Amino acid sequence: MRHELKIDDRTLSYLDFGGPGRPLLALHGGLSEALAFTGLAAALGDGWRVIAPDQRGHGASGRAPDYRREGYVSDAVALLDHLGIDAPVPLLGYSLGGLNAYHLAAAHPDRVSALIGVDATIEIRVPTGPNWYDFLEGLPHSAPTREELLAAAGPAGAPFIADAMRPLPDGSGWRLPYHPQDMLDSIRACDGDHWDAWLAGTCPALLIHGTRSQALTRATADAMVARRPKTAYTPLDGDHFVPFTDPEGFHAAVGTFLATL
């Protein structure tokens, strides 16, 4: 069920998939939204209550003044406070959400009982040359028709937005679930070395890795597991989008790890 809370006059929308199980906080990737965890919530069943926010600037949540780690982390803590969840909870994050999860676990170890990083690296260098996200430059937030919005994204961007577009509330056209400039700002704010955040956590952790990932190399994944105590590793045959190209493998890896807690 969808709910929302206000943070400094800004809306944070979230999905609470409900159920009698223990809460699991799940943070989606960039250019995505909480709905990405619908399959995971169904696969985990009544054993876990998946709670997933539309992170700032994504989905039904409002735009934010910045997209640095501190803001993403404070939103997640505000959500836990809003729900009255004081006990530590398992935390899962994919890609951008994984990076945010690492920082949340480091800044608030008393709120996190276990950590699941899903193809989320800790060494990020945002190059200045051509990139996969270049289609966001100049991309409008909305257009009169779905076809016009797809055309504006071009061949490179169309696959990223095809399933994400939705009608405008007044029926006057179609929109994206984010403002493209916000996503560019969010991507660029990830730049840097995040080893300190990853190594600061002491709770049990799992790193799920797409072995052909464009974002997380095998060398980095191996180092993350070797250098952080109590960290397990599950490789899946796929690229960075392996949670969606191999959902059964992803759901099984998460479920197996949660069962050990």
Give the helix/strand layout.
Layout: E1 2-7, E2 10-16, E3 22-27, H1 38-44, E4 48-53, H2 69-83, E5 89-94, H3 96-107, E6 112-118, E7 123-124, E8 142-143, H4 146-161, E9 166-167, E10 174-175, H5 180-189, E11 192-193, H6 195-200, E12 205-210, H7 218-227, E13 231-236, H8 242-245, H9 247-258
Parallel strand pairs: 3-4, 3-5, 5-6, 6-12, 12-13
Antiparallel strand pairs: 1-2, 2-4, 7-11, 8-10, 9-10
Helix pairs in contact: 1-9, 2-3
Your description of this structure?
The chain is an alpha/beta fold and 261 residues long. The chain has two domains: 2-122 and 194-258, 3-Layer(aba) Sandwich (Rossmann fold); 132-184, no CATH class. It contains nine helices and 13 strands. An eight-stranded mixed beta sheet has the order 1-2-4-3-5-6-12-13, sandwiched between helices. A three-stranded antiparallel beta sheet has the order 8-10-9. A two-stranded antiparallel ribbon has the order 7-11. Helix 2 (69-83) packs across helix 3. The longest helix is centred in the middle third of the chain and has 16 residues, at 146-161.
Highlighted features:
single chain, alpha/beta, 2 domains, globular
Entry summary:
Helix content is about 35%, strand content about 25%. The chain is an alpha/beta fold. The protein has 2 domains: about 1-120 and about 195-260, Alpha/Beta hydrolase fold, catalytic domain (Rossmann fold, 3-Layer(aba) Sandwich), CATH 3.40.50.1820; about 130-185, no CATH class.
